[in-house]
Design brief:
18% strand, 10 helices, five-stranded mixed β-sheet, nucleus, RNA exonuclease 4, Nucleotidyltransferase, domain 5, alpha/beta, 9 strands
Amino acid sequence: MSSNWEKLRKKLDSTKSGRIEKKTGKKENLKHKKQVSNGNERASQDGLQINDTRMKELKDFAREHDLSESQVFDAYGVDAGNLTRKTNLETLGKYIAMDCEMVGVADDMSVLARVSIVNYHGRVVYDTYVRPKERVTDWRTWVSGVKSFHMRDAPPFEKVQKEVADVLENRVLVGHAIQNDLKVLLLSHPRRLIRDTSRFSGFRKLAKGKTPSLKKLAQQVLGRDIQSAQHSSVQDAQATMDLYKHVKKEMDEPYFKRGFKG
C-alpha cells in the first residue's frame, strides 16, 4: 500500500509546479489561473487550491485501492465537502450498512459529525461530515477522527438528514447498535428492515451474553483489526456489513418466520 501512496504523491506533486501535461504532449502554464470560479477549485487545509482533475485522481485512487475517500482526502488536507454525497438510488441495491461519528456539545451531549453508508459489497455510497448546530466543546478526535477543519465545507444537519433518509428508504439497514446512529440522525426505520449485529444472539454468545463490541467481533469473526486508533465510520460500516453477511441466513430467519421478506 505504501508504494501506491508514493505513486499518487508523485503524480499529484507533478501538478503543483503549475504545469499539466496534456494528452497531446503540449504543456499549458497554469500559474495565471489562480482565480477560483464556479467551484472548479477547492481550498485545502493548508490553503492550496485543488482543482477538479486532482480531485478526480484522489477519488479514483481511493476506489481502486479500497480506501475511503475521507482517508485519502485527509492525507492531502482536502475539505469535507468533497466526500461522497451523491449516489444512484436506483442501482444502490437492497442492503446498506451505516455508521456515524459524534462529537460533544454542552451538557456532555453527543451530536452527529459524520455519517458513512456502504452497500452490500462494502463500497462507499455516502460519506460526509456534518456541521453541528451547537458549538462543539469536545471534538473527541482521538476516537471520532473528526477535526474542526472538517467542518469548513460540511453540509448542515438538515440537508444530511434528508439525504440519509432517502438512502435508507425501503432498504435493509445493517448496523452495530444502530439505534444510536438513528437517534443522533433523528430518524426512525422499520424494525423488520433492521439488522443489528450487536443484538444477534450468535455474536452475543461470543461476549458471554453481553453486548459485543464491534472491534472484538471484527477480530474474532473476520480476523480484522479496526479501531486501533481513531475510528473510521467507513471501516466500521464495512466491518458491520461483513459480519452480517457472515451470518445473514441466521439473522434473517426470524423475520422470514414472521412473514417479512426483509
